[in-house]
């Protein structure tokens, strides 16, 4: 009787490591709860419009300022627009901004951090640049960027496209510094490892060494930084929209819904509570998922 062939040796360590990370992640109750809440919010924003098909921009003056009901489960705003549809549409925009801004910040921060950690010649100037951005007042800088570039981008790409590109670029350009500092420390520690020293001694090209040996070993802190970056980007976009400097009025985001509801907060408090609750739940769930990933990817935690 022949025995089944063994699993390939190169896939077994990766599979066992992935199973260990998942087991450790499941032990983190806050991370699992955050993952469930985040999945529910993603389904609400992503698949909700397939079920609730009302146009979020449709104005019905006769139905304005309605409370909870069958026709409008979460009521309507001062122009008669359905709040449930606007919350779903605003969630798509807010989450898209968070993901895109995180990608920009993660890409630039990873490039700066890996270059600074690997090259002694680039370390000092790149870290001084990072410290300069850390010392800048970020909110006034964001407001200045929005005021300077909003109109030119709106003329070139339209109000919605220009606002999206501007906000993503502004948030990404002002939130990469922590990722760069974290990855620089990781790369400095990796340079002293035996397999890196062996690769250097055999004359491996720098580009190949970084792609094959450095980048795979800093994926864990990059994932953690990505999750935390999404939360920070969502909060920043909501703050800009709440100040009236984000997307145009007919382009809903959760922050814009807060801004529109402030004037009538005492009469219709749920218009402020609902988008504020969604922002808070999203940020908290993403932070808990990031904490769970950080603990699960720490070898010292997995062996406890």
UniProtKB/TrEMBL annotation:
Key word Lipoprotein present: no
InterPro entries (UniProt xref): BP-dependent_transpt_permease (IPR050366), MetI-like (IPR000515), MetI-like_sf (IPR035906), OppC_N (IPR025966)
Swiss-Prot/TrEMBL keywords: Cell membrane, Membrane, Transmembrane, Transmembrane helix, Transport
Membrane topology value: Multi-pass membrane protein
Gene3D superfamilies from the UniProt entry: MetI-like
Residues passing through the membrane, by range: 31-52, 93-117, 129-150, 156-176, 218-247, 267-290
Residues annotated as signal peptide: none
Example of a GO biological process term: transmembrane transport
CDD domains named in the record: TM_PBP2 (cd06261)
Subcellular compartments: Cell membrane
Domain ABC transmembrane type-1 span(s) in chain numbering: 91-290
Main location: membrane
GO cellular component: plasma membrane
Keyword field contains Hydrolase: no
Family affiliation: Belongs to the binding-protein-dependent transport system permease family.
PANTHER family membership: ABC TRANSPORTER (PTHR43386:SF23), OLIGOPEPTIDE TRANSPORT SYSTEM PERMEASE PROTEIN APPC (PTHR43386)
The name this protein goes by in its record: Peptide/nickel transport system permease protein
Organism name: Paracoccus aminovorans
């Amino acid at each position: 009787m022949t025995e089944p062939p063994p699993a390939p040796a190169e896939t077994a360590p990766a599979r066992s490591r992935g199973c260990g990370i998942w087991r450790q992640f499941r032990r983190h109750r806050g991370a699992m709860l955050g993952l469930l809440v985040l999945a529910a919010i993603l389904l609400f924003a992503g698949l909700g419009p397939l079920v609730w098909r009302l146009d979020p921009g449709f104005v019905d003056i006769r139905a304005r300022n309605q409370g909870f009901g069958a026709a409008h489960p979460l009521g309507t705003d001062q122009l008669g627009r359905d709040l449930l549809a606007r919350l779903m549409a605003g969630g798509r925009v807010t989450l898209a901004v968070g993901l895109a801004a995180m990608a920009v910040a993660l890409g630039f921060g990873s490039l700066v951090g890996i270059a600074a950690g690997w090259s002694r010649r680039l370390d000092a100037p790149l870290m001084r640049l990072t410290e300069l951005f850390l010392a800048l007042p970020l909110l006034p800088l964001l407001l200045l960027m929005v005021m300077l570039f909003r109109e030119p981008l709106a003329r070139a790409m339209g109000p919605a496209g220009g606002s999206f590109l501007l906000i993503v670029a502004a948030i990404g350009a002002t939130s990469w510094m922590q990722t760069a500092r974290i990855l620089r420390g990781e790369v400095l520690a990796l340079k002293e490892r035996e397999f890196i020293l062996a690769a250097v001694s055999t004359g491996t090209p720098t580009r190949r060494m970084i792609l094959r040996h450095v980048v795979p070993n800093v994926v864990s802190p990059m994932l953690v930084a990505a999750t935390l970056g999404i939360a920070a980007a969502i909060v920043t976009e909501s703050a800009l929209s709440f100040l009236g400097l984000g997307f145009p009025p007919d382009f809903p985001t959760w922050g814009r819904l807060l801004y529109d509801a402030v004037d009538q907060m005492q009469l219709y408090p749920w218009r402020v509570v609902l988008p504020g609750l969604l922002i808070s739940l999203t940020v908290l769930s993403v932070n808990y998922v990031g904490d769970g990933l950080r603990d699960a990817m720490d070898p010292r935690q997995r062996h406890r």
